[in-house]
Amino acid sequence: MDFLELAKKRYSSRNFLEDKKIPKDLLEKIILASSLAPSACHITPWKYIVIDDKNLIIKLQKIAFKTPFINKFTASASAIVIALSKKNFLVHKFFGFFQDVNYNLLDMGASIENLILEATSLGINSCWIGWFNEKNIKKFFSIPFSYKIVSLIALGYEKNEETKINKLKDLENYKNIVNKNIISFNEFK
């Protein structure tokens, strides 16, 4: 599959089939793809915890989100990936300070995007989540202080095929928006 076609198929899904598990070999393949991302000075700061036990997913959903209506859909996910980063002092803090760039987050963004695109290529939908209670999750899973939880990624199979069809229809409109508002050549417009 051509990369643009893959990118077009990716969207944030919040409506998963609850009874369809993702096989462990596919979860491992998804994490392998994430580890192939580029990183500053090849530090590869990422570590992933894959939660695919339904009871743990439900517990994670309860501790990660303070209000019952925020990200409630995560309880139906087949797996939730906790994306962790460990900062390297020299590259992420020292060089990052002088360049005013958070290389740590750039590295994690590239890795998570690989994860999500590999899932998409395997027919698995995802939702990249940034709103969660890091303190509760770290305590529950005994995650060391030196690690930062950057994101959660819910994975599963889309429950409603119509959602996929509507997302693909919207792409033609999006292409027009990109051409008018995002791209300029040889000058800032």
Q: What is the helix fraction of residues, given as a range? A: 40-55%
Mean pLDDT: 85
CATH topology call: NADH Oxidase
Structural class assignment: alpha+beta
Radius of gyration: 18 Å
Verbal overview:
There is one protein chain. It contains seven helices and four strands; from the N terminus they run ααβαβααβαβα. 47% of the residues lie in helices and 15% in strands. The chain is of the alpha+beta class. The chain has a four-stranded antiparallel beta sheet. The protein has a single domain, classed as NADH Oxidase (3-Layer(aba) Sandwich).
Summarize the structure.
By secondary structure, the protein is α+β, with helices and mostly antiparallel strands.
Name the descriptors.
189 residues; four-stranded antiparallel beta sheet; alpha+beta; NADH Oxidase; single chain; 15% strand
Present the secondary structure layout.
Layout: H1 3-9, H2 24-35, E1 46-51, H3 54-64, E2 79-86, H4 89-99, H5 103-121, E3 125-129, H6 134-140, E4 147-156, H7 161-181
Antiparallel strand pairs: 1-2, 2-4, 3-4
Helix pairs in contact: 2-5
